[in-house]
Write a structure and sequence with these properties.
alpha/beta; Rossmann fold; Alpha-Beta Plaits; 2 domains; six-stranded mixed sheet; four-stranded antiparallel sheet; 11 helices; 47% helix; 20% strand; elongated
């Protein structure tokens, strides 16, 4: 029967990954040895659950997402330790479940079989208390290192796909997301946003002001999007909005709300309030569309919208007295 005991008392120098004791599941049909194993590990600061056969261990792992280490006896009725480990890994929600096989002997053939099955380490039932604790602390160190590496890799991945200035997706991330949507057979509407007279703003007020405006406009773009939509900086003063499974009329409605929100933004510079606006181009995917062809369509429609503003409008100073 699987059991979970209350959290053991912690002492100074106990192992505490992320301030919590490592959660261990010990599995053995020998009740006497299981009690000993639990006592040794609990005294060493681990949080120990127990099960008396492989089937009970699998159920425990399905129900308990925090189990990080499985210590399983090799010889058990119904399901041996190697099969228990294999099925436990399939059932576990914990990334990188660490597995230790308990054996009656230190035979090479058993170790080779276990290694071929992907187990991480071994313990014999003749191991001393110190050896048992040392094995589990080694497992704890490895799990901590793997979690740290995973976190660092996720952070690097996020940085590689994020525009540093605005915090939205960068060009690489945009293309990756669009390709994934289109390759899955889903429809996609793409909207290209270009800030009007942004060069004039940069030249008049400086690049720091320009950076602030870009960041605020990126934030405004995110406010009217839905879960699953993707906002990214395409380059310079251009942003792209990916709208999966969105009809053209619905995309125009979303775009209109964004244009209105951006038009309401204000930046105070000395005695003036600076405003901005955007021009847009929109394209909806067809059977042979790629992100490149959709962006080409968007760019052509954006160019038409820019021309509609007129040369005189391009030279207008976008500042209002306070």
């Amino acid at each position: 029967m699987a059991t979970r005991d209350p959290m053991p008392a912690r002492r100074k120098n106990d192992y505490e990954p992320e301030s919590l004791p490592l959660r261990v599941l010990a599995v053995d049909d020998d009740a006497s040895y299981l009690r000993r194993l639990k006592l040794v590990l609990t005294r060493a600061g681990f949080d120990v659950a127990t099960a008396d056969d492989g089937a009970a261990a699998i159920e425990q792992i399905r129900a308990d997402r925090d189990i990080a280490v499985l210590v399983s006896d090799l010889s058990m009725p119904g399901m041996d330790g190697i099969e228990t480990v294999r099925r436990a890994r399939e059932a576990s929600s914990f990334p990188g479940l660490y597995t230790i096989l308990l054996t009656a002997t230190d035979g090479v053939d058993v170790k080779l079989r276990a290694l071929d099955s992907g187990l991480d380490d071994f313990l014999t039932k003749s191991s001393t208390d110190s050896e048992i604790v040392a094995k589990l602390r080694s497992a704890a160190r490895r799990l901590t290192m793997e979690r740290r590496l995973q976190d660092e890799n996720e952070e690097l991945q996020t940085l590689a796909l994020t525009d540093e200035l605005t915090g939205v997706a960068n060009r690489r991330a945009l293309f990756r997301e669009a390709d994934a949507i289109l390759s899955s057979g889903r429809g996609l509407t793409v909207v290209l946003f270009d800030l009007d007279r942004f060069k004039h703003i940069n030249d008049t007020y400086g690049h720091l002001m320009g950076d602030r405006i870009l960041a605020d406009i990126a934030a405004a773009l995110k406010m009217d999007t839905r879960v699953g939509d993707v906002i990214g900086r395409y380059g310079g003063d251009e942003f792209v909005l990916l709208l999966p499974d969105t009809r053209t009329d619905e995309a125009r409605s979303i775009t209109g709300r964004i244009i209105h929100r951006i038009a309401e933004l204000r930046w105070v510079m000395g005695d003036y309030v600076v405003t901005s606006s955007v021009s847009t181009g929109l394209a909806t995917s067809g059977s042979a569309s790629t992100i490149a062809t959709l962006l080409t369509e968007c760019d052509a429609r954006l160019y038409e919208a820019k021309n509609a503003i007129g040369d005189a409008e391009d030279e207008r100073d976008l500042q209002l007295p306070i």
